[in-house]
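ok here's FtsW/RodA/SpoVE family cell cycle protein, seq below lol
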Amino acid sequence: MIKKIAKSYDYSLIAVYVFLCLFGLVMIYSASMVMAVERFGWDSDHFYKRQMINIIIGFIAFTIAAWFPYKAFQVSKIIKGLMVVIIGLLLAVHIFGYEVNNAKSWINLGFMPIQPSEFAKLAVIIYLGSVYSKKQAYIDDFNKGLAPPLLFLGFICFLVFLEPDFGTAAIIFAIGAIVISCSGISYKTFFKLAGLGVGFLIVLSPVIYLARGFIFTKERLSRIEAYLSPFKYAQGEGYHLVNSYLAIGSGGVKGLGLGQSVQKLGYLPEPQTDFIMAIIAEELGVFGVSFVILGLSYIVLRGIYTGVKCQDPFGTMLAIGISCMIGIQAFINLGGVSGLIPITGVPLPFISYGGSSLLVLSLSMGVLVNVSMFVKFEEKYKTKKENDYPSENKDNSKKIYGVKM
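and the structure came out like this:
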């Protein structure tokens, strides 16, 4: 049985995930070695070593999640426990958290700092997928089927919004909307839900107006101004984007060579996190950028393909939700670095430096690979069963790890 299960894993998906993490590790060392010495007085490989530890922890989490049957998340005790932990961490941020980039989003656990809002992304996908998969018989009934999970999604977004981290709150909401859209609801219900959302915003517009000083702060407005006219504010809020343009333009097709970036020498702040793609473009040119984009695209498209093929509604929502989460974050990061959208501080999946982000992404990839394994295993089992017993009309379901297929 274990041998059959091992053969059912999507090793191409695993390989791309591993290659992106290792490629990111190399680029983090290249991007951060000068800054670590000049700015912080640390060893040149400080960020490299920290990220190596993050990757090891991430690989362990990935392995556990890839082996753990995803259907177990439908067990009421497990899903309720997960939600209690996530809500507890998001509430704890407002009491015990500390501020980074004007948002109180981090908690120091002693052995490592974590960002609970990152874990909330995966938790929302699992929760909505689990709940809606059990409501298939009455999924279009708003009061009984749709409303309760929507209230939970709104509460999670509200807690993240108060940090204040509007960007992450918007990402969580978008992820939730995608999971709901592939939950099995009819087009009619979906458009009604969208209309209700627009109406809700209209009703809240007076509150938004009164809280405009909290929402549209001077710093956030200056980011929009810098996005629209970066060279006009090149010595202020447009500084990051202008230097990102210079890095991308300097790289050209072939790049300046690994380790030869000029912008990482103090011109581009935090080159190992939000703007690591600019360093990749400068050092490795179009080829380096293409490698990253193709790798991320493969994961997203392969995940969506897995979700479409999966016959289990829960597996479908997990696969599509995780794939779209990775795709959304990649688009926001790449859009910010290239000036397509305003800069929001979202890391590039698997590439940027960061422990919480990589851990959540590794757990997510483990769940995605597990869903893919179940889909492939079920296809093989049904095909074999049909070939061996073509005339029998029996239940072809099977238990894996004690979970019924």
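fwiw The chain has 14 helices and five strands. kinda neat tbh
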